[in-house]
Amino acid sequence: MQPPTAMIFAAGLGTRFKPWTDKHPKALALINGKSLLQRNIEYLQHYGIHGVVVNVHHFADQIIDAIQQNKGWGSNITISDETDAVLETGGGLKKAAHFFSSTVSPIVIINVDILTDLDLGEMLKAHNTYQPLATLAVSDRSTSRYFLFDEEDTLAGWRNVSTGEEKISRKAERYVQKAFSGIHVISPAMLPLIHQEGKFSMVDVYLHLAKTQTIRGFDHSGSKFIDVGKPESVEKAQSLFP
What we know:
Layout: E1 5-9, E2 30-31, E3 34-35, H1 36-46, E4 51-56, H2 60-69, E5 76-81, H3 88-96, E6 107-111, E7 114-116, H4 120-130, E8 134-139, E9 145-149, E10 155-160, E11 166-168, E12 176-186, H5 202-209, E13 215-219, E14 225-227, H6 233-240
Parallel strand pairs: 1-4, 1-6, 4-5, 8-13
Antiparallel strand pairs: 2-3, 6-12, 7-14, 8-12, 9-10, 9-12, 10-11
Helix pairs in contact: 3-5
């Protein structure tokens, strides 16, 4: 069987990560001497994934230079160029969809600022067992925005606990809220179903598709996990990932 391929979202402006992002892309921020991008490429390699699409916008040339100088850290990396306009996660995946046109195996997607020891092999196994359109890594940690799942771990909605805003995609007897970890496994069959245009979030894609399609959660509570979103998270990331 064809091995999974992957996409790393690295196009963001990194506004929460200033002052580093005034002169550099967040993807090249160092954690114990290795950039976030290198760490995620090596994380994917650990699970046999060597074909990776990386989208770029903010200081795109620095990311491309780093990839070329390091020969992709041993992976085959394709650049999806968003220098004209940043498209967010959903728009970024839609723009890169043609790179996966011959792909029949699952596609792993990860935000470049996520570091984790989540067992991606187990997540892929769950995806292959249940065959949903997408499997989303989630956990029980505290956040302001949650995906809502029914008791079968099927995506049913979204909630912002700070504002009280709620979006329900399908009815459930009970909604279980889980924090999304920015790691997804999608079926290539999902790509033609993304009908939004321009700049949009994967959250919108999933909430729309969840009305008619099965999207499942994969709970990895207990794994090491950090969103390196702000400069103050670097110290914690360095203690978690030596």
